Amino acid sequence: MTPDRPPPRPPNLNAITYFEAVARRSRVNLAASELSVSPSAVSQQIKALEEQMGVLLFRRVKRRLILTEQGERLYESATEALGLLRNAQTRVSQKREHRSLRIRVAASFGVRWLGPLVTDFIAENPGIDLHVDATSELTDFEKENVDLEIRYGMRTPIGLHAKALVVERVLPLCTPKFAAAARESGVQTVLERTRLIHTVKAAISWSEWMTENEFENVDTSHGLKFDRSSMSLQAACDGAGVVLETATLALNELRSGALVPLAPELGSLTFPTYWLTCPPRHLNRRVVIVFGAWIDKKANAHELEKSRLLESLGAGATKAHSH
Questions:
Q1: Are the C-beta atoms of residues 274 and 168 closer than 8 Å to each other?
Q2: 136 inside domain
Q3: Is 202 a domain residue?
Q4: Is residue 305 part of a domain?
Q5: Same-domain pairing of 184 and 316
Q6: 287 assigned to some structural domain
Q7: 28-35 vs 13-25: helix axis angle to the nearest 10?
Q8: pTM of the predicted model, to two decimals?
Q9: Do residues 195 and 66 both lie within one domain?
Q10: Which residues contact 30 (CB under 8 A, 6 or more apart)?
């Protein structure tokens, strides 16, 4: 029996790359310029490759390097192999650069606050594919593919990292016509005679607001009831009554003057209400860090604008909600 021959030593990938460039360009100096190396480095790699393979790969004809028959065979295989590697590198790089970020957010907050800002985020972070799921359903991070949640409520969720984004300011809002009536006949009279608009999932109810502000003999059990703040605010804009809502969600209406505080002298009830939440382990993800810093900056700008606007409307006073 003849002993098994050892397998041939694999070719040097760097040498193959240099060889493919020379074969394509037909000149060492042109290949060297393309590869950003010296001509001598290219020549050394070609010589080493020929020695390793035991064949002549080029012959010189009038200052040009022409492939030999063996060189032609190697060039065809090298071109195909390097093409596959380059395509794979492109696919991997694109997958790495385009990261996905999935966020779950309370519906009204998503539509009225986050939605208008999304174009700013993607303009600043074109490599992140953003998926926003606007729903009132809370996230089970152990079972669902969600990176971050913007959760509504007064209490931080147990076991999750939570950062307060918004210090909410709740106050009765109405059309200027209702506000003028309150100035003439008093807030108590208007509240007794006017239909109250309820957002049923709001953190503060009309009855709680009445207690906090010491209003009595106002029936809060009747009126219009909606499960979305957007619908409540629209009803108030249409003159259907007085709505108890947050300045955050009503910011556009306050800016335009479509809604104004019913009783600016009473100010607003305050409490932290929108929380950026996620499991602590998610804080190590780059997309989470980037979005967290971005939304924190936007939230700070929003809080400043909201405070200045309410002050300009005479409703700058605040009172912490005693929940």
A1: yes
A2: no
A3: yes
A4: no
A5: yes
A6: no
A7: 120
A8: 0.66
A9: no
A10: none
Give the tens place of pLDDT for each residue, 275-319.
899 999 999 999 999 999 999 999 999 999 999 999 999 999 988
Q: What are phi and psi of 298, to 5 degrees?
A: -65, -40
Task: Name the strand (E) or helix (H) holding 45.
Answer: helix 39-53
The DSSP H or E segment spanning 66 is: strand 64-67
The CATH number assigned to the domain holding 253 equals 3.40.190.10
What letter represents residue 224's amino acid? L
- 49/176 same-domain check: no
What confidence tens digit (pLDDT) does each residue in 143-184 have? 888 999 998 876 777 789 999 898 889 999 999 999 999 999
For residue 42, give its domain range.
13-96
Asked if 125 and 246 touch (Cβ cutoff 8 Å), the reply is no
Rounded to whole angstroms, how far apart are CA atoms 52 and 55? Answer: 8
Q: Looking at the 3D structure of the chain, how many domains does it have? A: 2
In angstroms, how far is CA 157 from the centroid of its own chain?
21
In this structure, the answer to whether residues 190 and 316 fall within a common structural domain is yes
Cβ neighbours around 190 below 10 Å, total:
22
Per residue of the chain (323 residues), what is the pLDDT tens digit?
Answer: 445 555 566 667 888 888 888 888 888 898 888 888 898 988 998 898 888 888 898 888 877 888 888 888 888 888 888 888 877 776 665 554 458 899 999 888 888 899 899 999 999 998 898 999 888 788 888 888 899 999 887 677 778 999 989 888 999 999 999 999 999 999 999 999 999 999 998 889 999 999 999 998 899 998 999 988 999 999 999 999 999 999 999 999 999 999 999 999 999 999 888 889 999 999 999 999 999 999 999 999 999 999 999 999 999 998 887 65
Q: Do 176 and 316 belong to one domain?
A: yes
